[in-house]
Design goal:
three-stranded parallel β-sheet; RNA-binding; 22 helices
RNA sequence: GCCGCCAUCGUCUAGGGGUUUAGGACAUCGCCCUCUCAAGGCGGAGAUCGGGGGUUCAAAUCCCCCUGGCGGCGCCA
């Protein structure tokens, strides 16, 4: 039995990691057929962390060989997502300045004949061949095989076509794809950093297509050629590629190339255990940006989805994360994405911002083009509010609904708050008294306002809450919110008085 | 259907033969703090380690089988 091993793996692993520090080269290779989703972002992150930790190189390669589905919009979304997350890459064609590196694009390489060269070589060496079968014919073969309970695959009928037969097929106007000749016996074995030894029977594989009729290389072929051209040392990618690996190893072998080290990270699932998709809520990284998640929270959360330290550490500063990350500690099992924990973590990072939150908020507002959401708001006042209330904010977008009542002219009164608080026995008296006394109140600041309210409670022999609560509802329309007296100070006397009066008229007369 | 991967609290996970009455985090519940809401502090509940067989003096940890979940089987990537 022929044993096809992933050549080069052992060779590479025998060198200690330390000796090879600067040789670590990894890549993130998304296809621009949609936005960057959570799973892709995590793959990018793990590659990036590994490169940074090892002092290696991280490259971004856009795999745009799907002529039908690749779009420029998707490329844009991927780049914006990468930038937002701070996942910068270290190489790229064109520019000299690292900040301006473009990603690699496979279709550009295709135009330069990069893949054709190797395709021709394989054909010349008899390791690949042209196949003139139509997709329909191949489909027939698969069905026939399946009917006989055999592995559905291409039967290899074009393997040994003579020159004449080829000419004739071409005369018929048939377009050829290129297929790689595979052994039908033996196993393909490789060692994966995360999974350990993985084996596949070669009998499962057919002579798969490495170049389409259009001349464009297929995914499996382009990946291998590029990973070698770019001297990729470690292929870190999603688990869904595990069964592509034997195919790719056959390409490496056919071309006489060493294989890189493989690390297949587990999938991310939705709450119902199925593969994360749109119906599970937001999956696009940019949607998280727009909702006001902080990139550092996103990174931290994603890092923990499928990787952990021995101590189960939860919060990491970026440098700490780089220092501690390792592929060996990546989990083998799939992880369910938990939006709640992400929210918690985001709140954690927002609280860390403290007084720096206003700056972060306004920058986010501008970068996501949402300024109109606070049109008419007094920015300076909002800054003051945020500085006091930053710990209430879990997502930056919460700000819109949390503090809107400061700025609007018609406050919405929560019906429950009205019936529970304003209808209380003493509420009307408290509000009338407040309106009266506050009219000429000289020192409209939080401390004196608090003193005023407490004094009123003592004077009327009622609980402080019986004073505080109605005023809160009158002024904000709700039972939750910032410290009452800061709230009043921020609003100013006129607004407070106006709201107290209108509340009395509207609900208590 | 075939092939492959995986399997510890609801979720992310630690733990990889005895140190485990299985540890941490999110969520949840209770108490404290408190002008509300948060935040914070303290505490509780929550996993017989998917099931069954082995191996061993000893198994969550090693082996086998089963089951379940996920992934792949494209001129998609």
């Amino acid at each position: 039995m022929e044993q096809i091993n992933a050549k080069g793996y052992n060779e590479q692993m025998n060198n200690s990691t330390d000796e090879r520090l600067s040789d670590v080269r990894v890549r993130f290779a998304p296809s621009p057929t949609g936005y960057l989703h959570i799973g892709g972002a995590r793959t990018a992150l793990y590659n990036w962390l590994f490169a940074r930790k090892m002092g290696g190189v991280f490259v971004l390669r856009i795999e745009d060989t799907d002529e039908a589905r690749s779009t420029d919009e998707s490329v844009g979304a991927i780049l914006e997502s990468m930038e937002w997350l701070g996942l910068d890459w270290d190489e790229g064609p064109g520019k000299q300045n690292p900040a301006e590196y473009e990603p690699y694009f496979q279709m550009k390489a295709k135009e330069q004949g990069v893949y054709d060269k190797y395709l021709q070589k394989l054909i010349a060496e008899g390791k690949a061949y042209k196949c003139y079968c139509t997709p329909e014919e191949v489909e027939e073969m698969r069905k026939a095989a399946q009917a006989q309970k055999k592995v559905p695959k291409y039967d290899g009928r074009c393997r040994e076509l003579t020159e004449e037969q080829r000419k004739q097929k071409e005369a018929e106007g048939r377009k050829a794809v290129i297929r790689l000749k595979l052994p039908q016996e033996g196993k393909t074995v490789f060692d994966d950093i995360i999974r350990g030894r993985v084996e596949f029977d070669n009998a499962m594989l057919d002579d798969f297509i490495i170049a389409k009729a259009s001349g464009v290389p297929t995914y499996n072929f382009a990946v291998v050629v590029d990973d070698v051209r770019m001297k990729i040392s470690h292929v870190v990618r999603g688990d869904d590629h595990l069964s592509n690996t034997p195919k790719q190893i056959h390409i490496y072998n056919a071309l006489g190339w060493k294989t890189p080290v493989f690390a297949h990270i587990s999938m991310i699932l939705g709450q119902d255990g199925s593969r994360l998709s749109k119906r599970h809520g937001h999956t696009s990284v940019l949607e998280y940006k727009n909702d006001g998640y902080l990139p550092e929270a996103m990174l931290n959360y994603l890092a923990l989805l499928g990787w952990s330290t021995e101590e189960s550490q939860q919060l990491f500063e970026l440098n700490n994360l780089i220092e501690k990350f390792s592929l060996e500690r990546c989990s083998k099992s799939a992880a369910v994405f938990d939006p709640q924990k992400l929210v918690w973590m985001n709140g954690e990072y927002i609280r860390q911002k403290g007084a720096g939150l206003p700056a972060v908020f306004f920058e986010w507002l501008a970068s996501t083009g949402q300024e109109e959401k606070i049109s008419g708001w007094d920015r300076q006042l909002l800054e003051k509010i945020l500085a006091v209330e930053f710990e209430k904010v879990k997502l930056l977008k919460d700000v819109f609904g949390l503090f809107d009542f400061f700025f609007t002219d018609n406050v919405e009164y929560n019906p429950e708050a009205v019936s529970k608080v304003l209808k209380a026995e003493t509420a009307k008296m408290v509000l009338l008294e407040s309106a009266e006394r506050l009219r000429n109140f000289s020192d409209f600041t939080a401390p004196s306002l608090e003193k005023f309210a407490r004094d009123l409670a003592v004077e009327k022999n009622i609980k402080t809450g019986q004073v505080f609560h109605p005023i809160r509802v009158a002024v904000s329309g709700r039972t939750t919110g910032p410290s009452l007296f800061h709230m009043m100070e921020f609003m100013g006397r006129d607004k407070v008085l106006a709201r107290v009066k209108s509340t009395i008229e509207k609900y208590l007369s």
